[in-house]
Design brief:
There is one protein chain. The chain is of the alpha/beta class and 415 residues long. The protein has three domains: 99 residues, Cobalt-precorrin-4 Transmethylase, domain 1; 101 residues, Methyltransferase, Cobalt-precorrin-4 Transmethylase, Domain 2, CATH 3.30.950; 184 residues, Vaccinia Virus protein VP39 (Rossmann fold, 3-Layer(aba) Sandwich), CATH 3.40.50.150. It is 27% helix and 23% strand. The chain is built from 13 helices and 19 strands. Strands 13-12-11-14-15-19-16 form a seven-stranded mixed beta sheet, sandwiched between helices. Helix 8 crosses helix 9 and helix 12 packs parallel to helix 13. The longest helix has 13 residues. The chain is globular. The N terminus is likely disordered.
Length: 415
């Protein structure tokens, strides 16, 4: 964080919109004309008239920007951004480095707004996803039927790659609009069907916005809590392996009650039944899945990618006692596997749990249940025992085959 006093040390952040300097407001134009140093993308700098200011392109890698700003801090600096700097722009990064009173933002029309204007459709109900600099597989975490999406892309999230994911997830009939080079003489706005685009090698400008409307049967990705057990990779036949069964999973997550912005731990994550659903339905929380078994870790990674929870599910490949030393203190913890050490793990996790936090644990063996009861002691706990039977066949007869009962415990830590 830069801590120099305000005075004249203001950095002006100017959103360039999709046109040239004539599209800017008076305050933005004044900031550019008074600047001693202007930093921006090459194509933005080329749209500026001849000025007395020094012009520098963004450094590569982008981390070099901080050294550049540190050396020049105190000069009159303008940073050029795309569209609205406060909408999926550079603003969040700048605000992590500078006091807010050292930054003045000049917003402009965003490229997404312009793309929807070209489409002639309202955009208030569209879901915005930033794929710029992020794995394209995060798209899998949000795709649902009959939804409109606006995607900010980069070279790794081309329209072709987006179409491929749509086809893979059962949305091959979706419409994809690609807006290229908006506001320039090379502007192009094209409509494709995902099935057709996936089958081509069509090339697009690196400056593009993608709008899509999902059509097709879907059914490959979950759209509501309660992912079928058979959808997870476990290394066993579908629905088997070290995985919390759907009914147990839903009950445990209900007890955990994850909230946006919270830190969560899944101890003994196995193949990821709990942590995958936790991260998917609470995208603004952070989940740390602790697992040491190599085979389970492999399938945990597969499921993390399959369900698109790359951004907020962090896999910790260690045993429990070593794992949480470097982890941030949690507000919610689920203990699903303990390797016979449930009593010790409960005590250590309880000490790290933040005040007001929730601790949920499961027990199947009588030994683990004894550890759980001993830990509860005089504390006020909520206990639920789940006895689940599922339909099966024995010869030509329909039967209900029972699973081992699972005891769930919830404890809340006093504020």
């Amino acid at each position: 964080m830069f801590t120099e006093s305000k005075d004249s040390k203001i950095i002006q952040v100017v959103g360039m919109g999709v046109g040239d300097i004539s599209a800017l407001g008076n305050s933005a134009i004044a900031a550019i004309k008074q600047a001693e140093l202007i930093i921006g993308a090459t194509y933005h700098l080329s749209n500026l008239p001849e000025l007395g200011a020094e012009k520098l392109p963004y450094p590569r890698p982008m981390s070099g920007l901080w050294d550049l700003l540190r050396v020049n801090f105190g000069r009159s600096i303008v940073i050029l951004a795309s569209g609205d700097p406060l909408f999926f722009g550079i603003s969040s990064t700048l605000l992590n480095r500078f006091p807010s009173d050292c930054l003045v933002f000049h917003p402009n029309v965003s490229s997404i707004q312009v793309a929807f204007a070209r489409l002639g459709q309202p955009w208030q109900q569209a879901q915005w996803i930033n794929l710029h600099g992020r794995p394209i597989s995060i798209l899998r975490a949000t795709l649902k039927s009959n939804m409109m999406y606006a995607l900010l892309t980069d070279r790794d999230s081309s329209p072709n790659a987006i179409a491929r994911i749509l086809v893979e997830t059962g949305f091959g009939e979706s419409n994809i609009w690609v807006a290229e080079n908006l506001g320039t003489d090379k502007e192009r706005f094209s409509l494709f069907q995902a099935n057709n685009l996936d089958a081509t090698t069509t090339e697009f400008s690196s400056l593009n916005i993608v709008i899509l409307k999902t059509y097709g049967p879907g059914g490959v990705l979950p759209e509501f809590p309660g992912i079928p057990d058979t959808w997870f990779s476990t290394g066993k036949e579908p629905g088997r392996g070290l995985l919390s069964k759907r009914e147990v999973r839903l009950a445990a997550l209900s007890l955990l009650s994850p909230r946006a912005g919270e830190i969560g731990w899944d101890i003994g994550a196995g193949c990821g039944g709990i942590s995958i659903e936790w991260a998917r339905w609470n995208p603004y929380g952070e989940v740390y899945a602790v697992e040491y078994h190599k085979e389970r870790l492999k399938h945990l990674e597969i499921n993390r990618e399959r369900f698109g929870v790359i951004s907020n599910l962090h896999i910790i490949p260690r045993c429990a006692a070593e794992a949480w030393i470097d982890l941030p203190n949690p507000q919610a913890v689920f203990i699903g596997g303990s390797s016979g050490n449930l009593g010790v793990i409960l005590q250590e996790v309880w000490e790290r749990l933040q005040p007001g936090g929730r601790l949920v644990a499961s027990a199947v063996t009588e030994n683990s249940k004894i550890d759980m009861y001993n830990f509860i002691g005089q504390r006020s706990a909520e206990l639920i025992e789940l006895s689940i039977s599922r339909n099966n066949r024995m010869d030509k007869y329909l039967i209900m085959r029972p699973h081992l009962p699972v005891l769930l415990m919830k404890l809340e830590k006093s504020e």
